[in-house]
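Archive transcription. Copying these from loose printouts into the bound notebook so they stop getting lost. Printout 1 of 2:
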Amino acid sequence: MKHPPYVITVSSEKGGVGKTTLATNLAIYLKALHEDLPVTLFSFDNHFSVDRMFRIGSGQARGTVADLFSGGKVEDLVETGQYGVQFIASCRELEDLGRGIEDVSSLAGTLATAGLQGMIIIDTRPSLDIFTRNAIYAADRVIIPVKDAPSLENCRHIYEFCEKHGISKGTLRLLPCLIDSRIRYDGPFKDAYQLLKAYAINRGYRCMEGFIAKSPKVEALNTNPEGKIYPVLTHGRETNVHLQFSHLARQILLGARNCPEPRIAKVRQGMLEQQATREEAHQARRSRLSGGCLICGKALVDTGVKTPAAFYCESSDNRTAGFLEEDCFSGLIFRHFYRSQKEITPTDPVRTLFRESAQRSYFALRPVPKDGGLDPSRLAFYRFDDQSREISHRIIELKEFRSRFLFRERTSLYRLAAETLLDDTGAPTGNFLLVRRIEPGCSEGVLVGEPRRQFEQTMSRVADRWSE
């Protein structure tokens, strides 16, 4: 895996403080100071300044920043732009996409699996929305531009976010921006820069060295008949802002060199550890699986991957898990739950309807409480929907044997209960059994990923319901 990038996020809830000017020009100065350094820039704001400044020609974008949250491969989204800076195109529809994103670590996870190196600079919207929160979570350095007291007050929300998510506040730095150097004060603070820095330090905030001045020349670089945006490096070298950006870029490079482990590297390591934990849990679940149907004993699991089973079941103590052949479990359902007196053949339309409805259901079996204990002669048979809401339930008798002409045979229901709900003496253990229909032919589906998460979530909800 390639060396992970150092991420800089430019963020402020206050508009008009120079975030985009700061992000775009910082990218160019970093590239100018270190020609071989890969620098990638993208923006979650929808004014398309990044695209106007860096796009070469009028070609179609390879993708947009929206693809960072929808499974797009980062390397396929990156374009090489003006001044050697790489960028990802902006997107107008981010607000609609944001409603479906809750995880603040999504962007960090995407960048952790990508092959980008060097520096990544992220420009954000003037709000602490889900995209800004993702950008802050992924950052090694968060630069918060402030130009007045209101923008300084808004900083506390970013600090509160970092505190909530265990992010070191040492990543945060305030940078006075758009400072009018002509304004002078009487007293200990001679100008707006010194005053803002004193306010920041008094509140416990740390600042970057220096500031970015307000400059009519620099502001004019965004307004011209061609509709282009010109950088300070090429069109404002005679201004103080040029020297200030040079100083800022050197600070960032020094900070990156002194960073022992980039944030993305930590996220990547965490993902690898989570994957190892999931794999270990998966192997543990597989080791508990019974090789045959828990009702009839028919061999269902060969390699642990392919099986003709139609139902997966697991006891609430997680000690017993296995598969149920479709005819076996469906027979129990029709006989005990629906109390059908006739045999339902595999081609019967009723069985087809059951298969379809079972895709959206969970079934549960548990001993019936009695006199402060458990009744060994009765079971409660439940059916729940995908949201763990009870659809129906029925109390059924648990008979061990059914009489034959010359011998007695254990009932199918008792065989299942003996494997999952009863101890060696036939007494109820206090556990319950949760059953879920699976896709025939692949047992692994319910043991990993989202299906496993849903199964565990339902198990937990049902357990909570019955513990009340």
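Printout 2 of 2:
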Amino acid sequence: MSEEPEKLAEGTLISHLLELRDRIIRALVAIIIALLPCAYYTNDIFGFVAQPLLAKLPKGATLIATSVVSPFMTPFKLSLFLAVFIAMPFVLYQIWAFVAPGLYRHEKRFAIPLVASSVLLFYIGVAFAYFFVFPAMFSFFANTTPPGVAMMTDISSYLDFVMTMFFAFGIAFEVPIAVVLLVITGMVSLEKLRNSRGYVLIGIFVIAAFLTPPDAVSQCIMAVPMYLLYEGGLIMARVLGKMRRDQADQEEAEA
């Protein structure tokens, strides 16, 4: 006996706008709640983020503030970024709760693990940048400082730099998700991605050269994990493709 076609939730434009408003308010409240403890420990948080550079500076060198408001605004800006970072799973849940009623059951089944894994991979990319990339990068910069030049970085410039690097490595670690989406949506076949490994490797090194400072160490630290994640994306795409084929065969047999 065949099942009835799945029906999607419907609503008026006003109901959708009200739902969107409620979801946005909830997301903002979550960010504000996460911001409260972050703002209280704002200087400690900035000290933690600045530690990779401080550990590599010459003896007696420190970070500096060249603006009157930088000692307050720069740590507070970091606290705001951290609050968004912490609240992101809840924010994404609100987005998911808003769009989920318009998706079919099989679309939800594949979307949930993709969204969850994309958030996890972004967090891993940020942690990788902090614990592995920054120590090697700042050590290289400190050791190549010309004689007679004091390495005294402005805290605002430092924050802008590390936030760019966090974002770059977080996005770079989304490579498996991009591969899976390309295969699942049928934009590119899995076989074609396998045969294009050489071009992908060259492209990854080019992207790493643009996203990282101009030194070979930073470029390789980003490029190598990106390529390994590309290979992991191929494995994930093959597994998900097999699951979709098995599900289609099962539904056809039940029909």
